[in-house]
Amino acid sequence: MNNRIKNAFASKQNLLNVYFTAGYPRLPDTLPLAKALVEAGADILEIGMPFSDPLADGPVIQRSSSAALANGMNLPVLFEQLRELRAVVPETPVLLMGYLNPVLQFGVEAFLRQAAAVGVDGLILPDLPLDEYEERYHPLFQQYGLKAVFLVTPQTSEARIRRLDALSDAFLYLVSGPGTTGGTTLPDAEAQQQYFERIAALNLKNPRLIGFGIADKMGFDRACEHAEGAIIGSALIRALQDAEDAPATAARFVRGIKSPVARSV
Amino acid sequence: MTPSSYQQPTARGYYGEFGGAFIPEMLYPNVEELRTSYLDILADPDFQLDLQHLLRDYVGRPTPLFEARRLSERYGARIFLKREDLCHTGAHKINNTVGQILLAQRLGKKRIIAETGAGQHGVATATVCALVGLPCVVYMGATDIERQSPNVARMRLLGAEVRAVTSGSQTLKDATNEAIRDWIANPVDTHYIIGSVVGPHPYPDLVARLQAVISAEMRAQLLEKTGSELPHFVVACVGGGSNAAGAFYHFLDEPSVRLIAVEAAGHGIASGHSAATSVLGTPGIIHGSRTLLMQDEHGQITEPYSLSAGLDYPGIGPLHAHLGASGRAEFIAITDEEALQAVSELSRLEGIIPALETAHALAALGQLGAGCDDVVVVNLSGRGDKDLETYLKNLDKLV
Ligand SMILES: Cc1ncc(COP(=O)(O)O)c(C=O)c1O
C-alpha cells in the first residue's frame, strides 16, 4: 500500500502539519480549506472532528468545535464531504483528530472502514487509552491500514515513550509543554530544550512533530531545530475566525509560516 | 467485610462494563501517580490516624441517625435520616475532601483545584485547603455562581479563588472540563480533588471509599436502634453519585437491602429539560470514564437540566451505571416540583430544611411501597441554607 505518511517524512524536511476543524468556519469549508492549505505548502493535514467537550483543547478550538457543531457537522456529514478528498489532495497525508465518544457512537469498525475508504491515513484520538488500543483496536487499525499517532508530553516516562514508539508507525506528537492547545504562556525554555534533547537521544523509530502553542514562523522554525517538523492549529483557527474568504486566509497563513524569508526579530 | 465485585472495581477501574480511564496523555502521569499510590496511602496507619482524627474533631463524625417520627407516620414506614447535613460545611462532600487533602499532602502537592456545582464540594475543598494552608482554585459554572451565591461567598471568605466557567451550559459539566484543563496545564504540583464518584479510575473508587464512612456508621447505628444492622431500604440522591455511593457501600453485598438511587427529572423525563441519566443516558465516555451519559445520536454530550445545581450533570458515576445495569440498585426520577414539595414537607414535619439535591431523595419516599415494619434510611446529604434564595423564589410551589 502507498504509505503517504512515510513518503512525506522520507522526501521532505521541516514538515508543517496543519490542524483545522471540519465544518468551520462554515459547514462546506472542509475540503476547500484542505485544498488551499496543501497548495500553499502544508505537508500534513490534521482534520479535527468537533466534539462538545474537548478536554485537551483551549478556548480557540473549543469555540471552533462548537461553531462547527452548530453548523451541522457530524461524522456522517464529514465522511460525505471527504468522499472527494483524494481528488483534491492526492498525496498529502491526512489525519483525523478527535475524541473517542463520537467514534464509539458511530461504531469503531465502521469509523475505521469509512476513514480508510475516503483515503485518510491515520488517527489521533487523545483519550483512547493505550491498553485499550493495544488489546482491542490495534489489529483493526492494521486491517484498515490506518496509523495511530500518540501524544508524548514532558512528563511521559522513557518506558512509556518506548511503548508508544513501538505501537506506532506514523510519527510521535510531542506536546511542547504543559497545557491545552493554543496555550500562550511560554514554557520554561531551558526545560523545553532538555525535553526535546532527551527525546532526540532516545533514537526512536518514529519521526517526531512538535505541537501545542506554536503560532508563527518563529515558533515553527524553532520547533524544526528539534524535530522533523511541527503542528499548528489554534493560530490558524484564530486567523479564520473573522475571515471573509477562509481558503484564501488559510493559504496566506501557511505561506507566512513556510516562506523562506529570514525570520524577523 | 470482604470486598465484592460491586464495591471493588477491576485493576483498570471497571465496574462491570463501566469505568476505566479514558484520558489524554497529558493527564496520564497525574492519574497514574494517583492510581499506583492511593490504596497504599489509604491503608497507611498514619494516614488513617489523621483521617479519623479530622473526621471526628473537625467534620463532627459520627453524624447522627435520627428517627423521623412524623415523617414515618406520614409514609407508614420506619424512617431514619442519616444526618450528613450536620457535617462541618453542611453536606457529605467534606468526607471526601478531608481524605483527599491528606492524600495530596502525602503526594507532595502544593496547589489544589476542584470543580463544583451546588458549591458544596467547592466549599468543602476550600475549607480543607484553609485547614492545611494550600492555595485553592474552584471552577464553577456561571449559572451555578448565580443560583448558589451563598456558597460562592463562603469559598471566597475561606481564601479560595472561584473561577467562573462560561462555556457550554455553564454548569457542573463545564466546570469539570475546566478543572481538568487546569490539571493538564499544571501536571506536577497540583492535585485535583474531584467532588463525586466520577472521572477516570481511580477517582470513582477513591471517592467511594472516602464516603463509605456513611454506611459504616449506619450499620452500627441501625443495630443499636433497630436490633439489626440491615435496613429494608437505603435512599439517596444521585448527581455524580458520591453520597449515594457512601450510603450504599457497606450494603452492596447485602441483597436484602434495597438500594434506591434518586435522580433529577427536572421538568419531567420526557420534557427535554431533565438530568435523569439512568433513563435518558446511553453508554459513552464523559470526563474520562465509560458510563451512562446524556448524548445525541452523534455522541455529542447534551445539556442536562435540574433546578438543583448539584444534580445538573449529564452522567453518573460508573459504579451507579453498573448498579443500574445489574439491577442491584433501583432508580427513581423526581421533578423540580416534587423536590420543592419535599423541602417544605421535611421542614414542617421534622424542623430540618434540606438541600434541594437531598429533597429529591426525600420525595421518593412515597414511591417505595414500604410497609409499616420496614426500616428506611434516607441519606440526608446536605442542609438547605445554600438554596434559600431558590426556595424564596418558589414559595408558591413550597406550600
Ligand atoms: C447536598 C448535596 N447532595 C447531593 C449532591 C450531589 O452529589 P453526589 O451525587 O456526588 O452526592 C450535592 C452536590 O453538590 C450536594 O450538595
From TrEMBL, chain A:
<comment type="subunit">
    <text>Tetramer of two alpha and two beta chains.</text>
</comment>
<dbReference type="GO" id="GO:0005829">
    <property type="term" value="C:cytosol"/>
</dbReference>
<keyword id="KW-0057">Aromatic amino acid biosynthesis</keyword>
<dbReference type="GO" id="GO:0004834">
    <property type="term" value="F:tryptophan synthase activity"/>
</dbReference>
<keyword id="KW-0822">Tryptophan biosynthesis</keyword>
<feature type="active site" description="Proton acceptor">
    <location>
        <position position="46"/>
    </location>
</feature>
<feature type="active site" description="Proton acceptor">
    <location>
        <position position="57"/>
    </location>
</feature>
<dbReference type="InterPro" id="IPR013785">
    <property type="entry name" value="Aldolase_TIM"/>
</dbReference>
<comment type="pathway">
    <text>Amino-acid biosynthesis; L-tryptophan biosynthesis; L-tryptophan from chorismate: step 5/5.</text>
</comment>
<keyword id="KW-0028">Amino-acid biosynthesis</keyword>
<dbReference type="InterPro" id="IPR018204">
    <property type="entry name" value="Trp_synthase_alpha_AS"/>
</dbReference>
<comment type="similarity">
    <text>Belongs to the TrpA family.</text>
</comment>
<dbReference type="InterPro" id="IPR011060">
    <property type="entry name" value="RibuloseP-bd_barrel"/>
</dbReference>
<comment type="function">
    <text>The alpha subunit is responsible for the aldol cleavage of indoleglycerol phosphate to indole and glyceraldehyde 3-phosphate.</text>
</comment>
<dbReference type="Pfam" id="PF00290">
    <property type="entry name" value="Trp_syntA"/>
</dbReference>
<protein>
    <recommendedName>
        <fullName>Tryptophan synthase alpha chain</fullName>
        <ecNumber>4.2.1.20</ecNumber>
    </recommendedName>
</protein>
<dbReference type="InterPro" id="IPR002028">
    <property type="entry name" value="Trp_synthase_suA"/>
</dbReference>
<keyword id="KW-0456">Lyase</keyword>
From TrEMBL, chain B:
<protein>
    <recommendedName>
        <fullName>Tryptophan synthase beta chain</fullName>
        <ecNumber>4.2.1.20</ecNumber>
    </recommendedName>
</protein>
<comment type="subunit">
    <text>Tetramer of two alpha and two beta chains.</text>
</comment>
<dbReference type="InterPro" id="IPR006653">
    <property type="entry name" value="Trp_synth_b_CS"/>
</dbReference>
<keyword id="KW-0456">Lyase</keyword>
<dbReference type="GO" id="GO:0005737">
    <property type="term" value="C:cytoplasm"/>
</dbReference>
<keyword id="KW-0663">Pyridoxal phosphate</keyword>
<dbReference type="GO" id="GO:0004834">
    <property type="term" value="F:tryptophan synthase activity"/>
</dbReference>
<comment type="function">
    <text>The beta subunit is responsible for the synthesis of L-tryptophan from indole and L-serine.</text>
</comment>
<dbReference type="InterPro" id="IPR006654">
    <property type="entry name" value="Trp_synth_beta"/>
</dbReference>
<comment type="similarity">
    <text>Belongs to the TrpB family.</text>
</comment>
<dbReference type="InterPro" id="IPR001926">
    <property type="entry name" value="TrpB-like_PALP"/>
</dbReference>
<dbReference type="InterPro" id="IPR023026">
    <property type="entry name" value="Trp_synth_beta/beta-like"/>
</dbReference>
<feature type="domain" description="Tryptophan synthase beta chain-like PALP">
    <location>
        <begin position="60"/>
        <end position="382"/>
    </location>
</feature>
<keyword id="KW-0057">Aromatic amino acid biosynthesis</keyword>
<feature type="modified residue" description="N6-(pyridoxal phosphate)lysine">
    <location>
        <position position="93"/>
    </location>
</feature>
<dbReference type="InterPro" id="IPR036052">
    <property type="entry name" value="TrpB-like_PALP_sf"/>
</dbReference>
<keyword id="KW-0822">Tryptophan biosynthesis</keyword>
<comment type="pathway">
    <text>Amino-acid biosynthesis; L-tryptophan biosynthesis; L-tryptophan from chorismate: step 5/5.</text>
</comment>
<keyword id="KW-0028">Amino-acid biosynthesis</keyword>
<dbReference type="Pfam" id="PF00291">
    <property type="entry name" value="PALP"/>
</dbReference>
